[in-house]
Design a protein that fits this description.
By secondary structure, the protein is of the alpha/beta class. It has 15 helices and 21 strands. Strand 1 and strand 2 form a beta hairpin. It is globular and about 75 Å long. It binds NADP nicotinamide-adenine-dinucleotide phosphate and magnesium ion. The site of magnesium ion (MG) has 5 residues, from strand 3.
Length: 490
């Protein structure tokens, strides 16, 4: 059925020390197309021995290899070349994300690819600007602080933005002179493998970036336990994130965890309701709701609740579900049958708790893992559909009375990743933004991210630390204080 699409599959083996290799135990796993359920191809499955080889390779590249010895300018040049190669290969990558992750072509063109390229260019610019400082502690000493690479980084990423999330980890780590072992999600390994091909072509020396597709509980688990790993940078579920933090604690490894969200999107009655409804629809339906910062709790001031729900339903009905390869498609499938069942179960539980289905609520179509865009209205914040991360195209709309109640509802959540608010009152906008417990607050918009801005949660089930921005350089560097004794001036 994809006869009209040119598909150029990447390498399907492991990238270890600059060479493509089969798994030591010769195992493979399937990756499938979520729009049809069909198997696309088999991928070498990294086992314990392969992870060991990948970490040893990354250690060698760090301790003996050319990467940390290069100047920042040279490292930056290679990262910029990788950005250029991604740019040249963009359509191929867009097709791979559509095939493997079910992402509509237009959305990946607009969002994931530009973001990945921008991220590499941004950190390429940092590579020769990572500086220490002289801190004059005492008159009898020259005291200064340098920044050194944190070491071997394990980057473990999920399936919802496969290429972009991988680049968010790799770009700052490499700019800082670290070496990396990347484990892509088992459901979406293809774009990471293509990234490996492009990285080799761009001149990344052997071992600097190893790519080890495989299963979380095998490849992922042995990677986080490996004593050769200094730092774990993880994006994924709270459950696995907490397990990683506990495991890392055994060796006091550093961790950055980007986990889930149940972001509140607050619409005050004085807002531009058409604009709010439009952007709030995108905020929950983009990527079929499989977005950590999805605006899944839409808080609407009572007097505007009916009007907003009506507009949101209209927005949902206009979405066109279908093949990610169809240019008309505006919403693709969920990633897997498991995810589809989970979303339907969440909706059923909401119904038992008394929420009203304003639209959607069911599986869509005969094949693939589609779910109808769904609006659940007149919810209360104690319902499971207001507290659990559904990770599907399901908006839970909760009415509120006044500013204080909106803030209280928004902050009553295990999550703290992002929030949005809509008002024409500038004082209310800033006052509310200050009061929200969230790593990002959007005012009169919902969802944009930028490489230059830090990204992460305020703790709880949204995780710890920040990706992106200047802050991410701290994730991948250690500080060293150097003390040179000068003695007394003659
Ligand atoms: P997940 O199950 O936690 O998987 C994430 C990654 O961890 C995958 O590569 C997975 O491998 C691996 N993994 C699983 N078990 C592991 C273990 N024991 N040791 C090491 N690695 C292990 O998450 P997901 O279901 O794929 O992704 C959805 C979640 O990610 C949502 O909760 C969402 O909110 C969150 N997310 C957060 C952000 C953010 O920036 N905060 C961004 C995107 C997604 P397998 O693929 O083989 O399971
Ligand atoms: Mg797949």
């Amino acid at each position: 059925m994809l006869d009209h699409v040119h598909i150029d599959l990447p390498e399907r083996r492991l990238l270890i020390h600059g060479a493509w290799t089969d798994a030591a135990n010769s195992l493979t796993f399937n990756t499938s197309n979520p729009a049809t359920g069909e198997v696309i191809t088999q991928i070498a499955e990294a086992g314990v021995l392969d992870i060991d080889a990948a970490v040893i390779s990354a250690r060698r590249a760090l301790d003996e290899g050319p990467w940390p010895q290069m100047t920042g300018v040279q490292r930056g040049r290679i990262l910029r070349r990788l950005a250029d190669f991604i740019e040249q290969d963009r359509e191929n990558l867009v097709v791979l994300e559509a095939l493997d992750a079910g992402k509509p072509l237009a959305a990946t063109r607009r969002q994931d690819l530009p973001a990945a390229i921008d991220c590499l260019e941004y950190y390429a610019g940092w590579a020769d600007k990572i500086a220490g400082e002289v801190i004059p502690a005492r008159p009898d000493a020259l005291t200064y602080v340098t920044r050194q690479p944190v070491g071997v980084v394990a980057a473990i990423v999920p399936w919802n933005f496969p290429l972009m999330n991988a680049v968010w980890k790799i770009a700052p780590a490499l700019a800082c002179g670290c070496t990396v072992v990347l484990k892509p999600a088992e459901l979406t390994p293809l774009s990471a493998l293509r990234l490996g091909e492009l990285a080799l072509a761009a001149g990344l020396p052997p071992g600097v970036l190893n790519i080890v597709p495989g299963l979380g509980n095998v490849a992922g688990q042995s990677l986080i336990e490996h004593p050769g790993v200094d730092k774990i940078s993880f994006t994924g579920s709270p459950q696995v994130g907490k397990h990683i933090m506990a495991t890392a604690a055994q060796q006091c490894k550093r961790v950055t965890l980007e986990l889930g969200g149940k972001s509140a999107n607050i619409i005050f009655a004085d807002a531009d309701l058409d604009a709010a409804a439009h952007a709030s629809g995108s905020g929950i339906f983009f990527n079929a709701g499989q977005v950590c910062s999805a605006g899944s709790r839409i808080l609407v001031q009572e007097s505007a609740h009916g009007a907003l729900v009506e507009r949101l339903v209209d927005r949902a009905r206009r979405l066109k579900l279908g093949s990610p390869f169809d240019p008309e498609t505006t919403m693709g499938p969920l990633i897997s049958a498991v995810q589809q069942e989970r979303v339907i179960r969440h909706i059923a539980r909401g119904l038992e708790e008394g929420v009203r289905v304003a639209c959607g609520g069911e599986v869509h179509g005969e094949q693939g893992y589609f779910v109808q865009p769904t609006v659940l209205a007149s919810a209360t914040n104690d319902m499971s559909v207001a507290q659990e991360e559904i990770f599907g195209p399901v908006a839970t709309v909760i009415p509120f009375k006044d500013d204080a109640e909106a803030i209280r509802i928004a902050n009553t959540s295990r999550y703290s990743l992002a929030a949005g608010l809509w008002t024409r009152d500038v004082t209310r906008a800033h006052r509310t933004a200050q009061a929200l417990r969230a790593g990002t607050v959007w005012i009169n918009t919902f969802g944009p991210t930028d490489t230059r801005l830090p990204w992460g949660g305020f703790g709880g089930d949204s995780g710890v630390g920040r990706d992106l921005g200047r802050t991410a350089l701290d994730n991948y560097t250690e500080q060293k204080a150097v003390w040179l004794h000068l003695g007394k001036a003659a």
